[in-house]
Amino acid sequence: MASRSYSNLLDLAYGGSPTLSQERKRFPRVATVPGILSEVEDDNCNSVGSDAPSSISQERIIIVGNQLPLRAHRNTDGGQWRFNWDEDSLLLQLKDGLGEDVEVIYIGCLKEEVAPNEQDDVSQALLETFKCVPAFLPPELFTKFYHGFCKQHLWPLFHYMLPLSPDLGGRFDRSLWQAYVSVNKIFADKVMEVISPDDDYVWVHDYHLMVLPTFLRKRFNRVKLGFFLHSPFPSSEIYRTLPVREELLRALLNSDLIGFHTFDYARHFLTCCSRMLGLSYQSKRGYIGLEYYGRTVSIKILPVGTHVGQLQSVLNLPETEAKVAELHDKFKGQTVMLGVDDMDIFKGINLKLLAMEQLLMQHTENSGEVVLVQIANPARGRGRDVQEVQSETYATVKRINKDFGRPGYDPVVLIDTPLQLYERIAYYVIAECCLVTAVRDGMNLIPYEYVICRQGNEKLDETLGLHHSAPKRSMLVVSEFIGCSPSLSGAIRVNPWNIDAVAEAMDSALILSEAEKQLRHEKHYRYVSTHDVAYWAHSFLQDLERACGDHLRKRCWGIGFGLGFRVVAMDPNFRKLSVEHIVSAYKRTKNRAVLLDYDSTLLLTGSLSTIPNVEAVGILKNLCRDPKNVVFLVSGKDRKTLTEWFSSCGELGIAAENGYFIRPKNDADWETCVAVPDFDWKQIAEPVMKLYTETTDGSAIETKESSLVWNYRDADPDFGFCQAKELLDHLESVLANEPVSVKSGQHVVEVKPQGVNKGLVAEHLLTTMQEKGMLPDFVLCIGDDRSDEDMFEVITQATAGPYLSPVADVFACTVGQKCSKAKYYVEDRTEILRMLQVLVNASEHAAKTAPRASNRAIIDKCI
Questions:
Q1: Which Gene3D superfamilies match (predicted)?
Q2: pLDDT tens figures, 693-719
Q3: DSSP-assigned states of every residue in 286-324
Q4: CA dihedral defined by 148, 149, 154, 157, rounded to 10 degrees?
Q5: 221 close to 559: Cβ distance less than 8 angstroms
Q6: CB-based burial of residue 741 (10 Å sphere; 0-12 exposed, 13-18 middle, 19+ buried)?
Q7: Do 9 and 25 form a contact (C-beta atoms < 8 A)?
Q8: Mean pLDDT of 404-415
Q9: 380 in the Ramachandran plot: left (φ > 0), alpha (ψ -120 to 50) or beta?
């Protein structure tokens, strides 16, 4: 069978197969008929690798975007299609940063509609000539996907516009969401046609394809997948209003690397993951990562750059030189301020015009001297909001020119017709200042382009009447709400909503000294020229390779349905605890040690009550009745509470306050594992904790005999986490000379005597039994949080020492699939109780068939 990998498709496209060399290859169409695909439909969800190994050793990257980096033209007679590269496309420009030895495949839509009967031929031509794979979408589906869900829901919301009324984006439409999922599924099928999953990297771009990672991860668990969001990511207060908020988050988390332009966007995404999915991130050696079902999803923060080479080549064109000369003569004796924006509601064009009006009113000396040239590119969306922006812009320009203009002078020049690149660059060259007043924008490369063009060249210097050695100057006034703002430290940053402040910033840019303008330009030029699009692409791919480095070192399997699908990745030695396996070992052993963490075994899942489950207490009591068993319950709670709760379990051993107090059975005395001379340190720690409790709503102090615990489980997650970090540092400082340890746990900060941990319980039990010659041949230890890792470590290390029988069966088991020192895991508390009940049944059956003498009295003495 022929492989579906790209290498074989390319062989076919080039006639590489001898048997098919004389045949015209027909490229398969995928879902080119109208309709909606179910979000859970996926025929190949169990596939985890390629059908056949790749025949090409060259490194490949598949770049997936909403649109292919192509321009399409049909001959004037309505004949054949003609295609050429779109040099302005970011997807094409980033190829410069990938290296000459990297093969690039593009997947996306064409900007022009292609008739169904032409799609096969167009697909073949694009694959052969451009290595592009087009995704053909039925017009109705495309309208719902792009103009519907993308532009009516995602784009406004990501730019901080809430759908408060039908005029503002409209109410959530489930049919548009289904169209969005269907289109992402079509894109996934296109990727499947060309990918060699063991070798290729896949780089998905922007908000149009946010659920694509789930479809790809479902097909290939180890797919090497990066995603970059080119728009802003809103704060959690905005994002949480989206009805499909969790589906999109979980889909993005199926990537290996997620890229953002700024730290603010990344921080908002991480906050959403924390508040909505309960995930926390860690920063290690400069890299930010989210642990998601055993996989580390890396976060990349790097703004995209401009294509410096393209701009410089256009600067050298004779057309550019002629246009610069024309504009230089046209605006002779005037200072040009330039704005270049799309005609949409977020670019703040009218705010810029109002600021210009304010400048002319407050600084009358600028009348006749300063001109604002506003280039308004056609809007990418459509709708009433675009029409309103256009009407408002035209009206404001007309009013300003009427009030402040005179014959031969218009203070505002509005250009709303499409310009060639060289024409736009000519305006950059002659402008003394560039203004960007967008109220929200993902990146905005206009300031970068302006800086490069102001550097100019010798021919343009001659055209402008400048000496070639004359210092270059430029000034930027930029909104603080755009992605490029943090990287332009020499720009005048403004709040575009504050018209007065923008007007003053414009005036400051005009009157700033020439030397200061030169310094700012040089600073910006150094950054923009070195952090270009090639640098950005190379850096992203480098981090993607690093993020995928441990794919083959982990065992992976998929769980979940539909858009809730995710991949669990664990160490090969970490596996689910089989009930049959543990029961078999239980039946053939005679001296059993069972260590159970209280929270992970006896509490009801999702319950606010901390009182033990009645059913669980009954199981525990029956487990203790087997004379071959020594059962210990380990808890962080105080001994008085545990005594009351488990008074009916006479044979149960209890370790309270995480191992500080130990009692082998109900009628025995409590012992301490660590000698503590006094607890005077509490008088120092408690006032500090009270201070943080008063300032952190939802926090509380738990006072125990041996420790103090500050609990912030009910506080705001972000604020509580920040306060916990501050409290940890504060306590470590004031208790530096005290014999205590300060630890942070899951929503707690605890101060306790040094050396106290749950591992002491396991160590004490095994050591004492070994001293009495009763080596356990069966050890079961179950826990669910960080404090239980000490027990896992002790019993795991004991397998190599004299504390266990040489043939002992050891089961260190954590709850949930996560990184742990345990060798086994179970899914949840319900599964634990079910397993313990099976062990109880085995004990009862053994007691009926072959009763044995009790060893319990001997074990009691040894403890």
A1: Glycogen Phosphorylase B (3.40.50.2000), HAD superfamily/HAD-like (3.40.50.1000)
A2: 999 999 999 999 999 999 998 998 889
A3: TEEEEEETTEEEEEEE------HHHHHHHHTSHHHHHHH
A4: 60
A5: no
A6: middle
A7: no
A8: 95
A9: alpha
